[in-house]
Amino acid sequence: MKENIDFRELIAILRKRTVLILVLTIGVTLTTGIIQFYVLTPVYQASTQILVHQVGEKKGSATYSDIQINLQYTRTFQALLKNPVILEQVKRELDLPYSAGRLGEKIATSSESESEIINISVQDENQKRAADIANTLTAVLKKEIKQIMNTDRVTVLSKAEIVDSPTPVRPNYKMNILLAFGAALMTGIALAFFLDFIDDTVARPSQVEKEAGFIYLGSIEQMKHKKSLFRGDPDMNIRVKAGRSEPLGY
Q1: Global confidence as pTM
Q2: Which of 57, 113, 142, 243 is deepest in the core (most CB within 10 A)?
Q3: Are 2 and 197 contacting, i.e. CB atoms less than 8 angstroms apart?
Q4: What is the percentage of the chain residues whose pLDDT exceeds 70?
Q5: DSSP 43
């Protein structure tokens, strides 16, 4: 097993594999960006709010019993918002290209504890369609409640609106690209160390000292062109034979 290496050797390994790390990091980041902007379909969200109250209820006149009744109705109406009957009506009114079940998957409802306000959010690939679904859903709910209970207990606090430059909720471009960059960078660094670990080639002077026990004195560069040792008479070229030098005859 290889011995532990110091910080300078770690830096040397990273420098040796700089091209690999850069190519991997840039390649993965660019690929992620291309997929985000040109392949994935953005999803937009539209939201609306409704208030559940008693008929004829005036501000400051509600009793504790009235509030508890309203909270019970809030939970009931929240469940009705994803009822197949109501979803089917919304689908028909808007002539949606998917089933009522698929429509229900696009709708999310929430209500804070002890609150009579229901938050409705709709996600769709089309911003206008998401807003239309949210507004139509509240309208159908009001109509159904009035028919069933012969009363109107729902008030729309805010309608879903269409904005000029909507920001999609999915995908999160900045976060995904940042995560891809970080993951690719860490993978490149890990790969660089792994390749160095399995490489048994002696590439650094410190390896000679550690693994062979030799003391590093220096290095000799390889000559680019073969030249005669002597520029004068070619007879002065020598050869070594049996431990002595002899002139070469031509």
Answers
A1: 0.67
A2: 142
A3: yes
A4: 74
A5: B
